[in-house]
Amino acid sequence: MPRALVIGAGIGGLTAAIALKRTGWDVSVCERAPELREVGAGITLWTNAVKVLRKLGVGEAVESVAAPIKTSELRSWRGKLLVRADFGSLGERLGAPCIGIHRADLQAKLADALGHENIQFGMTCVAYNRDEKGANALFAEGDDLRGQILVGADGIKSLVRNQLLGPQPTRYAGYTAWRGVAMIDRPEVPVGVTVLAMGRGSQVGMLPIGGGRTYWFATANVPAEGVAGSGGHRADLLKRFADWWPAFPAAVEATPEAAIIRNDIIDRPPVRKWTDGRVVLLGDAAHPTTPNLGQGACQAIESGYVLAKCLKEAETADAGLLAYEQSRFDRTAQITNESWQLGKMFAYENRLKCWFRDRLFGLLGGMSLRHTEKIIGVEV
Ligand SMILES: Cc1cc2nc3c(=O)[nH]c(=O)nc-3n(C[C@H](O)[C@H](O)[C@H](O)COP(=O)(O)OP(=O)(O)OC[C@H]3O[C@@H](n4cnc5c(N)ncnc54)[C@H](O)[C@@H]3O)c2cc1C
Fold it and tell me: Is 251 part of any domain?
């Protein structure tokens, strides 16, 4: 049985590992963290990703700990409704729902589906060596593992990418994000509704992620801090968003201080080269995007599935890796570029531009739903 080494047990690495295992590979996932950690609050998985998870046989388990998103609302910063979209009907028409889920729940279900014996923790990849028949991953802990393929699913600051493409800086979007999860029960945030509110230089969002929990996020145009951090942000957020749509500060208030995390929002301009012989990039290591379309993890899930499919259909592993690289570039590049542009509009500070943007979003509501359908209706 050929062996695949996957570096990184994030959403992309775990999905790729499941897909590869299902198509006959012996898979080892090597993760630098000592265990699967509860990181990153909540996440939206759109129809395109839910469909892939169902094909991999993980859909039921994942959906059982998630909340379906029935309605999406776009509001002004004061809470005035601009557009309401029926995501329930859209999901029915496309054949799978959009869901909100806690990242820890998603990772746990993926790890269960893969089999915990396939994941090795406390393994920090520091370099790889490759030849015509495979690649070796070298680890800070002293191990040296070999696979017929090596999948770099080690995130936006990927070590594997760094070696494969050479060092390249990430691109700061100009805004930072705070995230948290709260147990709140307020009439403004009914179950099944996801809300995005836009203001001057900031946006906030809230959505249900199952178990009575609400995931929230906020952004603001501030200088990059370089490192992610948690704790110490609540007072600043409550001050910054004090006069916004009241459900938002209420959610921040209901979140434990230490559970609020902050990240600079970064991505990288799309590049076409994701392979170096038997070494291949996947997820944020290959096609990182800003979160404005909520598609980063969804694309990582798609890529994991397509990688295994291409390898299965190709005559050689080399041909399969190249087919994967070619088939994924256009879609992921389009999402990275659109998400970047959308983020620029959300970050407008000029009063007139914001007024115009809010009216435009209100007027084009139906059109933007059709555009969303084009992105999430794609079946890989
Ligand atoms: C604020 C915000 C909101 C978002 N919201 C959404 C959303 O709603 N929907 C959506 O689809 N996407 C969203 N995303 C994007 C999504 O989080 C990422 O696209 C997704 O997590 C990428 O998964 P990944 O597995 O490629 O990388 P990661 O999740 O970064 O996982 C990489 C893994 O590799 C490990 N690792 C790193 N280096 C090494 C090494 N040298 N050796 C071994 N292991 C290593 C890490 O510890 C980690 O476990 C959001 C992102 C942000 C910042």
Answer: no
**100 CB near ligand 1 (under 6 Å):** no
pLDDT in tens, 287-343: 999 999 999 999 999 999 999 999 999 999 999 999 999 999 999 999 999 999 999
Q: Is 9 touching ligand 1 by the criterion CB < 6 Å?
A: yes
Residue 38: what pLDDT?
A: 64
223 in any annotated domain? no
Domain count, the chain: 1
Q: Is the CB of 13 under 6 A from ligand 1?
A: yes
207 assigned to some structural domain: no
User: Burial code of 293-316, b = ≥16 C-beta within 10 A, e = fewer?
Assistant: bbbbbbbbbbbbbbbbbbbeeeee
Closest approach atom of ligand 1 to CA 295: 11
- What CATH number should be reported for the domain holding residue 114? 3.50.50.60
If you measure from the C-alpha of residue 10 to the centroid of ligand 1, how many angstroms do you get, rounded to a whole number? 6
Its domain, for residue 160, covers: 3-170+267-376
Q: How far apart are the CA of 151 and the centre of ligand 1, in A?
A: 15
Residue 280: its pLDDT value, please?
Answer: 98
Separation between Cα atoms, residue 35 and residue 121, nearest integer Å: 6
* Structure confidence by residue, pLDDT tens digits, 166-189: 999 999 999 999 999 999 877 766
Average pLDDT of the residues of the chain:
95
For the stretch 188-206, pLDDT in tens is 667 789 999 999 999 999 9
Specify the pTM.
0.97
Q: Whose CA is nearest to atom 37 of ligand 1?
A: 154
Residue of 28, 154, 225, 261 best suited for mutating to test ligand 1, as the one with most atoms within 8 Å of CB: 154
124 lines ligand 1 (CB under 6 A): yes
The verdict on residue 246 lying in a domain is no
- CA dihedral defined by 346, 351, 357, 358, rounded to 10 degrees? 100
